[in-house]
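Now for today's protein:

——
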Amino acid sequence: MSKTILDLIGNTPLVRAQHLVKNDNVQLYFKLEGQNPGGSVKDRPAYNMIRKAMDRGEITPETKLIEATSGNTGIALALIARLFNLHIELVMPENSTEERIKTMRAYGAKVILTSADSGIEGSRDYAEDKVKTAGYKMLNQFGNNDNWKAHYETTGPEIWRDTNHEITHFVSSMGTTGTIMGTSTFLKEQNGEVQIVGVQPKDGARIPGIRKWPKEYLPSIFDASKVDRVMEVDEEEARAMTIRLAKEEGIFAGMSSGGAAAAALRLCEELEEGVVVSIVCDRGDRYLSSDLFD
């Protein structure tokens, strides 16, 4: 029996695709991170960043926390911060979905909206300025090693266990890159032949949760040597696969998960045999106010 909501973070289901893959020698599995209590994969790093910072005495209930987010990390931080009696301000672009903004506020966080034109980069600039000028402290998911270590300690071991050590390819969208960095590090330690595939948008494509960062904003936790291959997807492809996931596999997810699944399916079509795992990073219900499912 779980004692608190925090005990429900991790150990998410791994389910096999039933209809998408036509080659019986290739197995495609989806890691359903929307089953975390905050509804996304970001519960893992949010909990680890907060817990480790408190253990080190870096933050207390008196600390003024601020963090830039495109959505899922903010929801996770809002949920977990309040459980530790921490106050946090979350900064995000004003075109973020209404569900995300309202969920963060429901958990008790203060939400600051920055210009849609400046994107998440503008939100990051705003938060960093508050750290420099107004006495705030930032967990900094883009440069915090406790981000990727959460996946090294949990996501990677779960996938290794639940595929009976048979995984051959791991596919993940790249945003902060924490998921792919931590999972890659663990899986490569178990079997150096496991191929790590990162997914990013094609130039000009806007896919929430996946980024091709300008050099000056590239997350400092990212290590290109831990990614064997980068596959690009366009917005239309990501949208179409998101719909297919729901209609053909019963998996209701956001567009970044559709982008990862599109890349994973392309990969499956190349392989003669293999065991492929793709991250489904959140649930589709936080995108219902967008045009994703119109």
